[in-house]
Each structure stands twice: as structure tokens, then as C-alpha cells.
Amino acid sequence: MLSRAASSLFWMARYLERAETQARLLDVSLTMALIDVPEDREEQLSVPLLVTGSREIFHELYPEITPQNLIDFMLLDDRHPASVFSVIRSARDNALHVRGNLSADVWESINLAWMELKELRHKGVTESTASRVFDWTRERSNVFRGAAYGTLLRNDAFHFLLLGTFIERADATARVLNIRHHMATKSLEGHPTQSFFEWTALLHSLAAFEAYQNTYGHNIEPMNVAELLILKPDVPRSLHACLEEIADLLEQIESGEARRARRLATSLYANIRYGDREYIAERGLNEYLTDFLQRIQRIAGQIQKDYMGWKQ
Amino acid sequence: MVMLIQTPPEGIYDELFDQNNRVRPSCRMLEDWLIRSDEALLAEKRREADVLFQRLGITFNVYGEDQGAERLIPFDLIPRVISASDWQRLQAGLRQRVHALNRFLFDIYHEFEIIRAGVISAEQVFANPQYQPGMQNLKLPRNLYSHIAGIDLIRHNDGDFYVLEDNLRCPSGVSYMLENRRMMMRLFPELFAKAPVAPVEHYPALLGETLRAASLNPNPTVVVLTPGRFNSAYFEHAFLARQMGIELVEGADLFVRRNKVYMKTTIGPQQVDVIYRRVDDNFLDPLAGNPDSMLGVPGLYAAYRTGNVVLANAMGTGVADDKAIYPFVPEMIRFYLGEEPILKNVPTWQGRKPKDLKYILDNLPDLVVKETQGAGGYGMLIGPKASKKELNHFRSLLRARPDNYIAQPTLSLSTCPTFVDEGVAPRHLDLRPFVLSGKKVQMVPGGLTRVALKEGSLVVNSSQGGGTKDTWVLEGEEC
């Protein structure tokens, strides 16, 4: 397939996945800010900014961290390139580029999301209506995924699209886990109820709360959480699950010459697949995840070079 | 029941009613439908159609408006009906005309017979800015130049169809023909169960067949070349590529090496044999045409000249659809085919002829004046609608550059009942069938019907507020 089309599909899927991540992150932070003691409220609210590395741009645009400012910034602000509005717009721009490769259902799912979002933005979102927008984002994301799985031909267009989804998801999981795990561990020194909320916030941010309870029961142990979100292959947002997909997709994608991205992905996948919690504990979660993030970014860059770059 | 708020203007041919205000036989089922429908329900259906078109993203970009401003072309629910016998004649006439035009293009790039025979002057061909001297003696498969032609027709007071304009470069609008049909079938399936409407859905298949036949390679790689998503017809380019199952490429996706064209794919370069290009001649290759063009492919022209790639349509077809050449098409048909033209031309006065120029200047308020190079309804004067100031402006333009203009009588485009804000009223329309030339000349029944939504307006172009209708060619005998 065309390199440019592969790139557009890859980015289209990354942006759509990002929209969902942003909505989940903000949703959990706003809820936590309500539960939290007032002193910690600002810390809770700034989690989405920390995770996405957007603290600076936020402070350039807004005087202070309030729920409403955060809602505007994370959901609707077109000056913020990673707001839900901006990423869905970027996703649609990319989708326009590859309309020829998309089924009518996939295209419509994205175009409809964009049309509805413009409407939502026009009306504005407040603290009391924000949860509806979070639901909407998740729903749109699910419709897109359903349309993609249900109607796309299983060719390289489909593979590049999934590749974008899983690279973005792996990246998001590692970032959220890194920051929220740190906060939750800190909270262990405080009130147990508060600590419980911190851990559930982490799990909810990655849609893994039920998965945790199913696997480990009600007691939340820091190392269990890390294990679940890194090593468990059956948790949809775990690093293991994402890397398995990525390695598998790169195996399936038709390649001309030997491809480096494939090798990098396979090696990272092997690390996780044959890794264990002791190793993670020894290395320290933060260091482990920082290293993971660097490697997943290198894989993303290499995918672009291998399949999409045509400098001549 | 749907009521007409106006009757067709005096002396104008109406597609639904005859001069005694009786419904034409071919339109009876349409009348039944309108009588049985209620206005509120149809208004609901109109809104539904708008929402669906928005969702599908069947929008176009209007030049001169904000970049990225996407608009819907208004879609009218009341179809335009063409009887089986009318269509048979139209089809024969279109085949004949496009055949002659392709013969003409071959001739003016090879033997110049028509010029030597004195039918048309050398100056009119060779001095035409659309003439591409580089195309001389270039051998093209099947001697085909305009693989895809869009012929604009109107129906005059006398009930006969006249050719208004030939579009032999990159005629657009066929996606609206297809989507309008899809929309009508979705909104009013019961209508199609009753009316014997000829299908148009196989157009992409015919187009694919035509494009493959454009190459001598038995299994060619065909692509659609688009200027990109800011082009007004981008939706159509993507739509056709997807329907044909071929790649939609932009200039930057292609490159030329050793006079062969390749596309940049995820597995490396892949050679391209046929380019269905929706980019104008001048922008195809910055090395040969406009050096600032970002839309084209450097070296494409050389590859084309070598015969390693086929362009559809060919370069240099614009000379044959130019308004200055248009008056000669009936002569071409006689000259190349030895047949009488089946379709009429609109009488045309040419500014370049002193006698014609005088007539134009004397009768300006009654005429439509067009630039020979103009397109899309820009740069034209509609005499009866023009102010004194506009008339005087055009008089000076005509005197300064008479060659640049032709004039035609103000045509009475036929009307058809159409939904407008106040209700259902007759509005003027034209017809653009799409004629495909490959191993044979083929077309799907009908074409794109464009309708001027403003009362009395004769300008049907979508860029100037025109809308579209589904076009029904009835199969078999009239019902």
C-alpha cells in the first residue's frame, strides 16, 4: 500500500486512541479531586497534565488549575494539540487522506464523531456535563473500533491502523502507570480509604478495575497492579497485550527488505513476555517504565522510517 | 399532497408537464407519488438526506471561501425523468459526438487532415493555449484522448436536447450521480419498486474497465491522481478510487525513475501503468508545466512521452472542448464519420468573426457571452439579466479581445418541479452524462442533473449555488 496512506492510517488510529486516553484520564482526575482532601486537589487535577507532558502549555493558556479550566483545556481547546477536540480533528484530517482505504462505516464513525464534537464544543462543557462527554468519547471510540474490526479488509491498511492503536495504547499505559503508581504508593502512608481510591483511580484510568478484581480479588497490592498492567497478556491495555499485538502485526505486514522495526518490537516483546515481577521490583518501576517508553518511541520512529519514509 | 406553488414559465419546456399543463406520460408515477406524499413527510426526508450527506462527508470545497470550508451540494428529492426513447437518441448522439472528438484530437496531433481540408483554420487549433505541441506524433493506445468525457446538455423550448459544452479534461460530478441514486433508494425504496429506473451503480466498474483498456499492458496498475483534499472534488476522487479498489495518490506519492512512474509503497517502489488524473495539464509535471506546481510529478511528462505510462485523459484534450472549437463539432462529425450529427449544437456567434462580433455587440442584452477559456460559470454575461454597467463593461471587453468570446442566444433551459423554501416550484436544469471510451464507447443511463435553485436563474453550477437531482432514465417502453 501507499506509504502516505500507511502513515495516515497509523496516525489516525493513534489520535483516536489518544482521545479516549485523554477522556479517561480527565474523568478519573475530576472524580478524584472531589474525593480528595482539599490540599491534594490540585495534585489530582494536574495528573492529566503530568501524564501527557502538557503542564507548560496549560499554564501558558490558563491562569490556574481548576476543574473547568482543565475541562476546557483537555476536551475543547483547539490551541492544545492533544485536546480531545484537536486529536479528533487530526484523526479526521488523516482519515480524509485515506478515505480510499477506509470502509464507509469506519469513515462515517470518524466523520460523525467530528461533527458531534463541533456541536459539543459549540455548546460548551461544564463540570456537570463533563461526564456525558467522557461517555460520548468512549462510545465513539468503541464505535470506531467496532466498525474497523467489523468492516475492514484484513490487509496492511488494517494492520497499520492497529499498529497505531497499540503503539499509542502502550505509550499511554506506561505513562499513566508511572505517574499514578507513584502517587498511589505515596498515599499508602496516609489514610487507607484515600489510598484505596488512589489505586482504583489508577485502574479506572486504564479500564482495568474489573480485571484486577477478577485476577487478584479485592485487596490492592502495589506490585499486583504493576504486574497486571505490565505482564498480564489478557488485560487489553497491559504492555504485554500491546506488545504482543505490535510484534504480531509487524510480522504480518508485508515487508520488502529486512526491517528494523520488526526486530526492535520482537525484542521488547520478548523482554516483557519472559519478564517477571521480581525483575521489575528490582529495577524499580519508574526506571523500568522510563526505559519502556524510550523503546516504544524508538519502535514508533522506526516504523515510520521502515514503511513510511521516502526521503529522496 | 404536494402542491406546486408556481406553474412553469410561459414557453419553457417542463420535464413534468406538457404545454397544456398535463403530466407527461413518462412522469405519471412521479405525479402519483407527489399526490400521495404529504409535505411534512417530504420535508422530513429532505432533512434526513442532509444529515446523511453530511455524515458521508459528501461535501465540496468552494473556491474563494475559507480553506477547509465544506459545503453540501443541495440535493433535491424530486427526480428528473428521461423517457426510454429520449435516452436512446441521446446515447447514440453522445457516442457519435465523443467518437468524433477523439478522432479530432488524434488528427490535430498527427495528420492535420481537418485543417488541410479547410474545415477549421490552423490558427484556431495551433494558437489555442490548450494545444500541446508536445503531443504531436505521440502514439497513444487505441488513439484515445478523452477516455472520460462529460457532455453538458440542455433541453430547449422545442423539447430537443442541445449540447451546451463538451468537457474533455477532468469532468467531475459523477459521484453525485451515484450518491444521489443511493440516497433516493434509501429514502424512497417504494418508488423504485414501481418505476422501471435504469441502474447507474455499475459506473465505477465501467470506469475501471475503461482505464484498464487505456493501457496495452493486459494487467495494468491503475491509480487515481488527486490534487489533494483541499480540491473541490476530493470527495469524488476518493470515492471513485475506493469503488474501483485502486490507490488514490497525490503527486508526492509518485516519482519517476528512468522514465517510468512508480508509487511509494510500504514495500518499496511499484510501477504505475495508468493514471486517472484529476489534475490539470499544467500542474502534472513541474518540469514541463507550471514550475511551482506542488501537485505534479517531476519527470511525468517525459515518462508519458516515452509511452511508459498512460494518462487518462490524455494531455492536450482541452483544445477540443474549448468554446472557440465548440461551433465546429457538428462539422467534425460530418468530416470524420460521414454522418449527420444526432445532437444539436447551440447556435454560436464567434467574437473572432467580424460579422458575428457586430451581431453580438448589437444584440448583447439578448445574448449569453462566454469566455472561450472560461469554466464553472465564471466570467460570463447573461444579457437579459445584466445591468447597463455590466453590459457596457462586456462591450469594452469584447472590443478589446474579441477572440476571447463567443455568444449564444439566451437558452431557455427546461424546468422541473423542485423543492424550494416556499414549496415546490419549477426550476431550470441541465444534464451531464459521462461518456467512457475504451475498447468501446459506453455510458450508464442518465448522468448528473444540475438544477438552478434560484427562481429564474439559469446558472446550475454547484460553485454558484446550484443543486442536483437524481436522474431517472426509464427502461423499456414508456409507462
UniProtKB/TrEMBL annotation, chain A:
Residue ranges of every copy of the DUF403 domain listed in the record: 1-308
Pfam family, one: Alpha-E
Coiled coil: none
Stated name of the protein: DUF403 domain-containing protein
Superkingdom: Bacteria
Organism field: Marinobacter algicola DG893
From TrEMBL, chain B:
Residues in Circularly permuted ATP-grasp type domain copies: 79-452
InterPro entries: ATP-dep_Glu-Cys_Ligase-2, CP_ATPgrasp_2, UCP005522
TM segment ranges: none
A Pfam family of this chain: CP_ATPgrasp_2
Superkingdom field: Bacteria
Name this polypeptide is given: Circularly permuted ATP-grasp type 2 domain-containing protein
The species this protein was found in: Marinobacter algicola DG893
